[in-house]
Amino acid sequence: MDRDSAASAPGSGARAGRPVGHRSVGSRLFGRVLEGGLLHGGVQGSPVLRLFMRWVRRPLLPVMRLWRRNIQLKVVATTLLMSLGVVLLLGFVVIGQVRNGLLDAKVKASQSQATGGFTAAKQKAEEAASTNGDDGTPADGRPSQNVIQWMSELVKSLSSGGQSAFDVVTLPMGGESGSGRGPRASGSVDWAVSVPEALRERIDGDTAAAQSYTRIVYNSDQPSQPGLVIGKQVNDPNGEPYQLYYLFPLTQEEKSLSLVRGTLATAGLFVVVLLGAIAWLVVRQVVTPVRMAASIAERLSAGRLQERMKVTGEDDIARLGEAFNKMAQNLQLKISQLEDLSRMQRRFVSDVSHELRTPLTTVRMAADVIHDARVDFDPVTARSAELLADQLDRFETLLADLLEISRFDAGAAALEAEPIDLREVVRRVVSGAEPLAERKGTGIRVVGDQQPVVAEADARRVERVLRNLVVNAVEHGEGRDVVVKLAAAGGAVAVAVRDYGVGLKPGEATRVFSRFWRADPARARTTGGTGLGLSIALEDARLHGGWLQAWGEPGGGSQFRLTLPRTADEPLRGSPIPLEPTDSRRNRGLNDAGLADPASARGADK
User: Region entry Disordered: which residue ranges (predicted)?
Assistant: First the structure.
């Protein structure tokens, strides 16, 4: 487990990966497009695919950004899409019902007219047969001139009764176009195209009437039109069968259906737009107070604690506004109380620290006199004089730390930056810590001091930070070596102090910079620390615009990293030294017990 802490360092958080199932390439690509992965990230693949996705991504990014941030747009767009789907479904149903109704009415009327025409043709044939007698047919079997003329007059007579509502076509049985009873049609109907071949075959084999939908085509410039053709076998005056067809145009029904379609489309569009407007108005009434609350919350977080929501009415939104205002008022009261308390505490610490310096100076002078004369005392009194001097040293250090903390709290700390070589600072710190390291049996090794590591910094404050880190590493290193590493890259320099002692438990990497905090209160301290060293070091790093971060693992030691900008007031973008050392358990593929961890090893390989 990683236990990194960044006191003032921004980190670019790693995005956790999600398991991917066995899906096709197309489905994965489509899923990434819907989730915005291909719109916000890079595209792997051929240059043509990357160019295409870049061309598609550019106009869609603003739309997707607006879609993610605007709940009102989401609700209105969803309402419009659902309304459009409902309107389309209803439109299809209504149009289908209207079409079926129009066709049923037209078919019934056409069948009635065609039946009357068939009856009229039969009656005319019977009348003509009674007039012709036995001389109606010549000996060669061909129809007489009277029958041919009768057929022409029949077509003319039947079609004239429809007043252009239908056309009439007569055809010989079996396609006998060469006989005297050849095809005849009213108007300019192209019977060969207008009468379907399948219908003619049905009429040839059956005496019952039959019908079919067709496209009526004309030999003239008149445009074709949809129609209904009804046919039946009828006998001529000589008793010979022929085919009689009625062709009914469906133009009027088509116009009526088009009118219904247009009316439904207009009404549906109007309904969809109206529903969208209603949804926009309704959502606006809900979203506006929410946006106001979000805006006021941002102002509250910026420190403008007097901001409040405007409450009107007594509905749920009004109750939300009242609750929000009460919460803001309570927060303002609590924050004001805490600020007053913190101000009083800072003032108390500062005043007490200053007031204690005068009596402490007097006590120090007396203690120095006693300490210098201890050789004349008995052993017990001499030891007491030494303990008194040691505790006065700790007391002076504590007062100095409290005064420094009070300066940071009051914003009175000033930075005296100048170009310094951190190698010299590290050498002074290591030299000062060598006596303690010798008593602990610890070696201090410096790495990366071959090249200059120069930065604009306050040498006194940087030395105080590094002294605190090195002394802590020696104190808690359990006799193992301490490594001090220097590095510089880009616009940053860094110093890392690595120890191999007890390390840090999960969560302690962030708490270690708290004031008066100790990882183990029962652990004996031989260096007389006050518990404020790392807090002051953190404030010194922040004063430089730098980072002071900690990493550790139980039993694996810890590493503290100080990162400073090369130039004062230059923002940091990274550190030349990784926070987690390369010899950590995770990087070596080991678990907390020090055994090989296959999962960690695979993660490190990646």
Answer: 1-21, 114-144, 567-606
- Rounded to the nearest 10 degrees, what angle do helices 251-301 and 316-372 cross at? 30
Backbone angles phi, psi at 181, to 5 degrees: -90, 60
Q: 485 and 367 in one domain?
A: no
The alpha helices in 133-195, defined as continuous H runs, are 145-160, 191-194
Checking phi first, is residue 594 left (phi over 0); if not, alpha (psi -120 to 50) or beta? left
**Mean pLDDT to the nearest integer, 202-210:** 87
pLDDT in tens, 497-549: 999 988 888 888 888 888 777 766 555 555 555 678 888 889 889 988 999 99
Residues 560 and 448: their CA atoms lie apart, in Å, by 16
235 CB burial (10 A radius; 0-12, 13-18, 19+)? middle
The pLDDT of residue 360 is above 50: yes
CA distances from 310 to 72, 285, 289, 299, 570 (A): 21, 14, 9, 15, 43
Which two three-digit tokens encode residue 494? 């860094």
Within the chain, what is the greatest distance between any pair of CA atoms? 175
Question: Measured in whole angstroms, how far is the alpha carbon of residue 455 from the centre of its chain?
Answer: 42
Measure CA of the first residue to CA of the last residue in the chain; give whole Å: 17
Q: Residue 169: phi, psi to the nearest 5?
A: -135, 135
Give the model's confidence band at 1: pLDDT under 50 very low, under 70 low, under 90 confident, else very high.
very low
Residue closest to 410 by CA, chosen among 353, 461, 347: 347
- Domain span holding position 43: 24-69
Average of per-residue pLDDT across 427-438: 91
The answer to whether residues 489 and 364 belong to one domain is no
Give the predicted TM-score (pTM) of the model.
Answer: 0.48
Give the domain-ending residue among 409, 427, 457: 409
pLDDT digit string, tens, across residues 59-105: 777 777 877 877 888 888 888 899 999 999 999 999 999 999 999 99
Cβ neighbours of residue 165 under 8 Å, at least 6 residues apart? 113, 248, 249
- What CA–CA distance (Å, rounded) separates 244 from 204? 11
Answer for the pair 355, 419: CB distance below 8 angstroms, yes or no: no
Q: How many domains does the chain have?
A: 4
Cβ neighbours of residue 242 closer than 8 Å, sequence gap 6 or more = 151, 170, 171, 172, 173, 181, 233, 234, 235, 236
Give a yes or no: residue 274 inside a domain.
Answer: no
If you ran DSSP here, which 8-state letter would residue 497 be given? Answer: E
Within a domain: 90:
no
Q: How many residues does the chain have?
A: 606
pLDDT per residue as tens digits for the range 401-421: 777 777 777 777 778 889 999
109 in any annotated domain? no
Q: Pairing state of beta strands 444-447 and 482-489?
A: parallel
Q: Under DSSP, is residue 488 helix (H, G, I), strand (E, B) or coil?
A: strand
Instruction: Round the average pLDDT of the chain to a whole number and report it.
Output: 80
Name the DSSP class of 136: G
Look at residue 306 and tell me whether its pLDDT is greater than 50: yes
Give 386-401 as a DSSP string: HHHHHHHHHHHHHHHH
- Let me know whether 220 and 366 are in one domain: no
* Same-domain pairing of 480 and 386: no
Task: Report, as an integer, the average pLDDT of 124-145.
Answer: 61
